[in-house]
Automatic annotation (TrEMBL):
Gene3D superfamilies: Bulb-type lectin domain, Phosphorylase Kinase, domain 1, Transferase(Phosphotransferase) domain 1
Matching InterPro entries: Bulb-type_lectin_dom, Bulb-type_lectin_dom_sf, Kinase-like_dom_sf, Prot_kinase_dom, Protein_kinase_ATP_BS, S_locus_glycoprot_dom, Ser/Thr_kinase_AS, SRK-like_kinase
Name of the protein in question: Receptor-like serine/threonine-protein kinase
Membership in a protein family: Belongs to the protein kinase superfamily. Ser/Thr protein kinase family.
């Protein structure tokens, strides 16, 4: 079933690819009118069609979440991390086949025949569209004046150098992948920068201890630069409020989907959170759902619960709470409808929240009335259908009516105002036959608005909370690096102590690892999950210490559970996890050290040639490690990221696979990011496109691609240099050499040579003939079987091992399932040819997030795949 879906999808994709006459070349800095672009044309750059001069920013038709196939946005991305800094159509995502066009009248984004988004009417015709090195997308007139620019329409992010005027706002997205507007807002007013949830203020910059007010002048704009965030007065010359930050090359300020406003800088391919507001999670209005109670972390459990007399609506206490008394229900949603207008005030009651329960609105809004008694305060609320409760202070007689749906409460032991909360509820009638209906009908009609009120916000909250948790996690880890670190580490230590999961590997003390790595001095690699450092433990064991950076949205418990699983996998071809450390906002994994580093460094470098026998050992060792993950251990583990960077070597031909199990730790949002960051597309199997049926066969495909690279000693997609050097030296047939000039998509070339039986043409020229045709044939046949488009036709890893060890006959590659390589190879060629002589820019180097590989040669060309990004989460 799934495979049919895949075939159909790839079939249509192939059609789409074939139907397009030419493939897009990424423009630099400018685009001129009468320009069209679609995602299909730029599928190999993930939709990027315009880059700024130095490639720092890109404009793309971009899908931040491969799970949702129709969620494409016209975006400005920050290069190396593909961070979305602006989107045009945030509330109306378009399909993969939508079209971008730029004419003198402006930009339009059309889906089918519907115009989804367009720039406003311009005062004069546009002569160019430009993406500046600061990330501003602008339409220019003939004298290069801006007619329209994205900086004037911020979404949820501003970048360094961007200035937004008083009155403008950032509006949070619903989640990292659904960019539509959420309930949180950051607004620049003439006196402050404020955060609002559904219109109610929950944070003011002027009240932030790390913000300095140096003037009372009216604010005219907000500005972010290398040294801080500024609210400026006058005509931008005078600083009114400032948040000083340490100098950074690039930073953004962003209002997260979880309601926190944060400033992050991008250093060494990692986002470090420098500033977060509100700092106290309990001050986020919807952190525990509607009427949930947030307890500040550090005191015991921390997190979400319910006020006394309330129960959580779900196992997960962060989704909000309802009155426990089953005869109470919340008042129906207030509307103009006469049917819901008929609510009977005689059926209303106020239920108390108990002592020490506070609400953010009380801090930022003045009392509705003062010097009144409680019953009067409550009567103000019962007469108002949009009022959902009151807070009342006995001592001062101040009365705050809450006009919105309730957000979350927080526990406050030091609330000197002594406000007591009262929530308006309806008492259900238990008298049968009232209102002419029977009891059950009555109950269901009572239940309906209740569900409507509670469930709707909570589904949104689910998304928000995932993001929020990930922010929280990131913050924990990186606040050490933050100038504004206000936490101490004791609370996270306490949390750790709660966690006891059987099978966890050795736990190391942070100080021990810090000393072992000499303060994380000797970095030996970096991958999508973080940088790797060499260290020597006190007992002289040499280890590789990985600082985890890209995991987090799941709970800590899941993290530990996963570490326990990884720690219990022992196989000679899998890198052993010796221990871990979670302390001081850091997560570190301690692995055995492999002294020859990763395969890409040896294989693609100009260093000593890896002889054929060793290549074969590498192929076999990798296959065995993978076979063990797929069928040897208790739970099947899909690696999801097989590539030379994850194959580690040691003296005596030891070969070990690393980074397995970690993809489980990613959320969907993260994994998209993660995959795209790592630029591993060349190894991704076609089924990633449908993102539906990822299986162990997905790893088999990646393995096949790696095998081909082992044979050739180069990346699979590369440009043939104009100087063939020794290329011809040992080929037994040089008639094909001419076809190899220019771009080469090696898997296609391998298929062609396989068909002609000319295997020696495929050998790494550096081997200078120290390999036989039969040897190459064996690896190439296995490789081609592994990259069959149809996953079912790919051998299992166990069978791959058997084929390599001659235990079973070599598989015969099935041409009908390899034809996709031809479309793909043609694309590669065309894309490269269009550039003409300027080969170096033939294909825009895909922003690589990792790469310890510092090759400047043509080998470092991005692996081209007809796939885009894609999710990795879940499977094992
Ligand atoms: C762009 O698309 C429009 C509408 O489909 C078409 O009229 C126009 O010719 C296209 N322009 C180019 C340069 O392909
Ligand atoms: C506009 O900018 C482009 C690119 O920098 C330049 O070539 C052109 O001369 C400029 N035009 C005017 C009128 O300044
Ligand atoms: C950043 O902007 C502020 C306010 O305009 C200014 O005082 C400061 O010098 C700027 N920093 C840099 C590095 O330009
Ligand atoms: C605004 O800027 C201009 C020059 O750009 C300066 O002459 C003027 O004094 C400034 N006004 C204020 C209120 O700072
Ligand atoms: C109710 O009516 C008022 C004015 O009559 C209007 O502003 C408001 O949007 C209406 N609300 C709903 C939910 O229809
Ligand atoms: C009013 O109520 C009717 C039915 O009860 C419903 O169909 C309609 O959408 C409601 N209108 C508003 C504005 O709430
Ligand atoms: C709801 O009730 C109030 C007071 O009873 C009345 O003023 C208002 O017009 C009613 N609204 C509708 C839509 O019936
Ligand atoms: C409101 O309650 C009173 C007394 O409890 C009852 O007589 C009346 O019918 C109720 N009205 C509605 C609209 O339910
Ligand atoms: C509360 O105040 C109102 C008017 O301010 C008054 O009519 C009422 O009697 C008071 N109730 C109590 C219980 O004091
Ligand atoms: C409320 O806080 C006060 C002051 O810290 C404390 O004495 C009291 O026990 C708290 N009450 C509850 C119900 O937690």
């Amino acid at each position: 079933m799934g495979s049919i879906v895949i075939s159909v999808a790839t079939f249509f994709l192939s059609i789409a690819i074939l139907a397009i006459p030419s493939f897009g070349k990424v423009s630099q800095e400018y685009i001129y009118p009468n320009y069209n672009a679609s995602y299909y044309q730029y599928v190999d750059t993930l939709g990027i069609f315009l880059s700024s001069v130095k490639g720092t920013f890109n404009t793309a038709i971009f899908n931040p979440n491969a799970q949702q196939s129709n969620y494409y946005y016209l975006c400005v991305l920050y290069g190396t991390s593909n961070t979305i800094i602006w989107s045009a159509n945030r509330n109306t995502p378009v399909s993969i086949s939508s079209k971008f066009s730029f004419t003198p009248q402006g930009i339009t984004l059309t889906d089918g025949s519907t115009v989804i988004w367009s720039t406003p009417r311009l005062n004069s015709p546009a002569t160019a569209m430009a993406l500046s090195e600061t990330g501003n997308l602008a339409l220019l007139d003939e004298s290069n004046n801006s007619l329209w620019q994205s900086f004037d329409y911020p979404t949820d992010t501003i970048v360094m150098g961007q200035r937004i005027p008083v009155g403008s706002s950032l509006v949070s997205a619903l989640s990292a992948s659904d960019l539509s507007q959420g309930d949180y807002q950051f607004s620049v007013t003439n006196s402050d920068g404020i955060l609002k949830w559904k219109g109610s203020i929950y944070w003011k910059m002027s009240m932030e201890p790390f913000a300095y007010s140096s003037s009372n002048a009216p604010i005219s704009s907000m500005y972010l630069n290398q040294t801080g965030l500024y609210l400026l007065g006058g005509n931008g010359s005078e600083v009114v409020i400032q948040v000083d930050l340490s100098p950074a090359v690039f930073r953004i300020a962003n209002l997260g989907a979880g309601g926190q406003f944060s400033i992050s800088r991008f250093t060494s391919n990692v986002w470090y959170t420098e500033f977060v507001a509100p700092d106290d999670n309990c001050r986020i209005p919807y952190v525990c759902g509607s009427m949930g109670l947030c307890t500040p972390s550090g005191t015991g459990q921390g997190g979400c619960s319910c006020p006394a007399g309330f129960h959580s609506i779900d196992q997960d206490s962060s989704k909000g709470c309802l009155p426990s008394d089953s005869s109470y229900s919340l008042p129906p949603v207030c509307s103009n409808n006469s049917s819901s207008n008929g609510t009977n005030s005689s059926m209303e009651l106020f239920t108390s929240l108990g002592a020490n329960v506070s609400y953010f609105e009380n801090i930022f809004s003045d009392p509705t009335v003062k010097f009144v008694n409680l019953s009067y305060c409550q009567s103000l609320c019962s007469n108002n259908c949009s009022c959902s409760g009151v807070f009342y202070a006995n001592s001062s007689g101040s009365c705050n009516t809450i006009e919105n749906q309730f957000g979350s409460f927080f526990l406050s032991q030091s609330d000197s105002n002594n406000l007591g909360g009262y929530i308006k509820v309806m008492v259900k009638s238990h008298v049968p036959g009232i209102n002419g209906g029977n009891t059950s009908a009555n109950q269901s009609s009572n239940g309906f608005p209740l569900i409507g009120l509670v469930l709707l916000p909570t589904t949104g909250f689910l998304l928000i909370s995932v993001l929020f948790l990930s922010i929280l996690w990131r913050k924990r880890k990186h606040s050490k690096h933050s100038k504004l670190d206000r936490r101490n580490s004791s609370s996270s230590l306490e949390l750790d102590d709660i966690i006891s999961i059987p099978g966890l590997p050795v736990r190391y003390d942070y100080e021990v690892l810090n000393t072992a790595t000499n303060n994380f001095e000797n970095q030996i690699g970096s991958g999508g999950f973080g940088a790797v450092f060499k260290g020597v433990l006190p007992d002289k064991t040499v280890v590789a210490v990985k600082k985890i950076i890209h995991v987090g949205a799941q709970g800590r418990k899941e993290f530990f559970a996963e570490i326990a699983v990884i720690g219990n996998i022992h196989h000679v071809n899998l890198v052993k996890l010796n221990g871990y450390c979670v302390q001081r906002q850091e997560q570190l994994l301690v692995y055995e050290y492999m002294n020859k580093g990763s395969l890409d460094r040896t294989l693609f470098s100009n260093g000593p040639v890896i002889e054929w026998q060793e290549r074969f050992e590498i192929a076999l060792g990798t296959a065995k490690g993978l076979a063990y993950l797929h069928s040897g251990c208790e739970h099947k583990i899909i690696h999801c990221d097989i590539k030379p960077e994850n194959i580690l070597l040691h003296d005596n031909s030891q070969v070990k696979l690393s980074d397995f199990g970690l993809s489980k730790l990613l959320t969907r949002e993260q994994s998209t990011h993660f995959t795209t960051m790592r630029g591993t597309r060349g190894y991704l199997a076609p089924e990633w496109l449908t993102s539906s049926s990822i299986s162990d066969k997905t790893d088999v495909y990646s393995y096949g691609m790696v095998l081909l690279e082992l044979v050739r000693g180069r990346k699979n997609s590369f440009l043939q240099t104009r100087t063939p050097s020794k290329e011809n030296g040992n080929s037994d047939d040089s008639s094909n050499e001419s076809s190899m000039m220019g771009p080469v998509y090696f898997p296609l070339f391998a298929l062609e040579m396989h068909e002609q039986g000319k295997y020696m043409n495929l050998a790494d020229p550096r081997l200078e003939g120290r390999v036989t045709s039969a040897d190459i044939e064996k690896l190439v046949c296995v490789a081609l079987c592994c990259v069959h488009e149809e996953p079912l036709l790919r051998p299992s890893m166990v069978n791959v091992v058997a084929m390599l060890e001659d235990g079973i006959p070599l598989g015969v590659p099935r041409l009908e399932s390899l034809n996709f390589l031809r479309f793909y190879g043609r694309r590669f060629t065309e894309a490269s040819m269009m550039e003409g002589s300027n080969e170096v820019n033939a294909i825009r180097p895909y922003p690589l997030g990792n790469t310890g590989l510092t090759s400047n040669s043509s080998d470092s060309y991005p692996s081209l795949s007809y796939l885009s990004s894609h999710q990795i989460s879940g499977p094992r």
